[in-house]
Amino acid sequence: MQSSGSHKIRGWIFDVYPAGEGEVVVWVISENGERIRLMDKFEPKIYVSGAKDEVERLVSKLYRNPDIVAWGFTEKYAKPTDPQKSRVLELTLKDYRKAPNLTKEILRLGDYSKFDVHNGELQTDRAYMFSRDLFPLAFVEIKNQNTKLAYTLKDDVTSTDYTVPPLRILNLQIDIAKSGKIPQFQDPILKINLSQQDTQITIDSKDETEKLLKLVEAVEELNPDFIVTHGGDSYLFPYLVARAAENEVLDRLILSRDPVPLSNKAASGKTYFSYGRTFYRASPQRLYGRIHVDNSNTFVLSEADFDGLIEVARTCRVPLHTAARNSIGSSMTSLQLYQATKDDILIPRNKSIPEAFKSAYQLLVGDRGGFVFEPRVGAHDNIGEVDFSSMYPVIMANNNISAETVLCKCCPDSPIRIPDLDYHICTKRRGIVPKTVELVVKKRLYYKKMKDQSPDSKLREVYDKRQIALKWILVTCFGYLGFKNAKFGTVDGHIAVCAFGREALLNAAHLAEDNGFQVIHGIVDSLWLKKQDATVEDYKVLCEKITAQSKIPINFEGRYKWIVFLPSKMHPNIGVLNRYYGVMESGKLKVRGIEVRRRDTPKFIFDAQTDIINALSAANNAKELHQKIPEAIKVVRAYREKLLNEEVPIWDLVITKHLSKKPDRYRQNVSQVIAARQIIKDGGEAHAGGNIEFVFTSAENKRFDRRVKAQQFIEETTNPDVKKYLSMLYDSSANLLSFAGFTQKSVFEEVSQMKQKRLSREYFQSL
Question: Are 640 and 646 in contact (CB under 8 A)?
């Protein structure tokens, strides 16, 4: 619905994007459920800093530039580390899309050394919302006067009990009449399936043009807010564009609320490197007035559903379509950019804060990461677990750690000193990073409390999804502090957080030992403690003492009936830091670092290991755990029989592996590369950073290029490599039972021995 004239609207901000020159479109969901399209005038600003006389001379070269509406001078912090504001040039632009070219021109006029250009990389939707102090799904009152909007915010980004309008979510699925194993753009549409709440629509007309136009009609009639696809970014929407072009109806292929057809000029995807791993993200397929969510190209939705997506969008002030695809770190950055804008700190084009010089000794003592206590290998009982809550983010907030505060110029005598390095931290100015982290920490602590205390089961579920989404924000904020491209990151701040964390964990361990507890294992922000006859109250009292000492909340997670810390495969007497499983007194299973937690584990192995753990979970202590081992071996034997008797569906044997680089860059013919080449040969795509699914096929196929088969080519009659999968079964079972000395070989022997015993017993019974 298009709105004009002068009146007031109350509702939620849903979507914002640039329209014509100097204008933005704002979609609002009103209180009565209407979807209303508004227009607002918006002329963004960029800033130029440099020597006073040079900047003044620059004005004479720019004042006739047709892209500039107005210019003037204002006071801003030109750099995050500046102790006071300075005079900078403010340029008001007709259109934010002109900012990149204008930035290049200014840099050229300054010989790429005299000027710094700020805020030019801020996206239009973000710049608009920052300037109006808005955020996605904020409840507002809008006074509409033709193309000028006046907002009255009736919401707060800090709110934890906010309401959102009922949102319409449409699932779109397309079946393709494939001519080969892999669908191609020239393959016609077989049928289109749409589902929204209780409405199910199948479009299977004989004429493909009619199918496409009926899709457009159905979307317009259902009028969804979100269109959810699987592979919409990477394939589905480009495929629809190709089929519409083939049928000469591309100009009528409109899925947005705005009359904008799907584009056939989408950018190529992006491969990037993060945390030691290569990732691939398909280019987003943008809708206007609706939000397209590709559930194969979103992290937050897979972890925390729509409640988590909305929480991230609101808290981090990220547009919904961006929040659905952004990395969590990018969402955190958005919140930092808003805070910088609010604090009059200009946003730099590039990170400009270097690491402080360090001697060899300072590097040795400073760059050490988190502290760990090596686990005591084996099965234990009477173990309690205590965890610091959001340790690193709280350290950032408590100690004011940010790029502009560590080693500041104004507080050399600051009492806040970084352990080991003795670097000082500012006491006169609150940093951007702690300001933003503090908000997320407070909201998550509230949601964690309410997910346990709320009397409403549906609300408890909502609170849980919100806290999960915010957990990932907090997990990544530490990594982004040391990220080379983070606008407000600092390596010295990253080192400082680790130093404070090591100190907190060591002090907590010492305090636990002073209170009669024994440290069995500890890693970064968690401790596993043992004290004979200790009560739950004893653990809670200890947590109160540690919290008072460290100023970081620490929680008693619970006591284990038993827990197993697993050894290294290479060195059986040495424990692996984050590889354990156990059963708490509440009945909750806790598992880390084994096959059921890995994304490349086939369903067959996942199910087998899950059933083994369930068989062991009946034990009430470490002694009974050893007595349950024969039950676990029975589970292994049952899965072995299923595989040998061809009772395992081939789809349960599919393995997922990651491509760290392009297939043609590999020197070794590893399994995922063979599968990727099969896909490429048949006309498909395989990107660095993407995942490849395949099965190991019959060992009779000796040629290396036939030992695996890509998932796209699997059929019900495909013969798996039984020996390979048996080996994986024994290996995963041995991982669980290694605390009792089992190896892959001994599991095999035990399973075979059980079979022989059963056959012998049956033979004698038949006599």
Answer: no
Cα–Cα distance for residue pair 336/333, rounded to 1 Å: 5
DSSP assignment string, 121-138: TS-HHHHHHHHHT--TT-
- Selection from 604, 487, 535 nearest residue 121 by Cα: 487
Strands 45-50 and 86-93: antiparallel
CB 740 within 8 A of CB 626: yes
Predicted pLDDT of residue 486? 73
Tokens 């909340």 -> residue: 553
The Cα angle at residue 299 between residues 297 and 305, in degrees rounded to 5: 105
What is the length of the chain?
Answer: 767
pLDDT at 376 over 80: yes
Q: How far apart are CA 75 and CA 729, in angstroms?
A: 67
Backbone region of residue 369 per phi and psi (left: phi > 0; alpha: psi in -120 to 50; beta: other values): left
* Burial zone of 430 (CB within 10 Å; 0-12 exposed, 13-18 middle, 19+ buried): middle
Q: How far apart are CA 440 and CA 39, in angstroms?
A: 32
Q: How far apart are CA 471 and CA 318, in angstroms?
A: 17
Mean pLDDT value of segment 515-521: 95
Residue that the structure tokens 């509440």 belong to? 586
Rounded average pLDDT over 111-129:
91
| Per-residue confidence (pLDDT) for residue 572, from 0 to 100 | 77
Q: Is 393 exposed, middle or buried (0-12, 13-18, 19+ CB in 10 A)?
A: buried
How many helices and strands, by DSSP H and E, does the chain display?
Answer: 20, 27
Flag the least confident range among 3-7, 372-376, 602-606: 3-7
CB < 8 Å & 24+ apart, contacts of 239-244:
239/174, 239/176, 239/183, 239/185, 240/174, 240/212, 240/215, 242/185, 242/186, 243/185, 243/188, 243/189, 243/208, 243/212, 244/212
Which domains occur in the chain, in start order? 45-121 (3.30.70), 169-258+284-323 (3.30.420.10), 370-593 (3.90.1600.10), 632-762 (1.10.132.60)
Chain segment 625-675, per-residue pLDDT in tens: 999 999 999 999 999 999 999 899 999 999 998 888 888 888 888 888 888
Which residues make beta-bridge pairs with 461?
A: none
pLDDT digits (tens, 9 = 90+) for 407-450: 888 888 999 999 888 899 999 989 999 999 999 999 999 999 99
pLDDT in tens, 554-600: 999 999 999 999 988 778 788 888 889 999 998 889 999 898 888 88
- 127-134 mean pLDDT: 94
Place of tokens 């009736």: 154
- Report the phi/psi class of residue 571: left, alpha or beta, with left for phi > 0 and alpha for psi in -120 to 50: beta
Burial (CB < 10 A; 0-12, 13-18, 19+), residue 407, is buried
Q: How far apart are CA 60 and CA 622, in angstroms?
A: 81
414 exposure class (CB count in 10 Å sphere: 0-12, 13-18, 19+): middle
Alpha carbons 293 and 72: distance in angstroms, whole number: 41
Q: How far apart are CA 268 and CA 247, in angstroms?
A: 24
Largest CA distance in the chain: 109
Concatenate the DSSP letters of all residues of 709-763 into one string.
Answer: EEGGG--TTPPB-HHHHHHHHHHHHHHHHGGGT--HHHHHHHHHHHHHHHHHHHH
Residue type, 335: L
Q: Cβ(544)–Cβ(554) under 8 Å?
A: no
| C-alpha–C-alpha distance, residues 627 and 27, integer Å | 64
Cβ 508 vs Cβ 542: under 8 Å: no
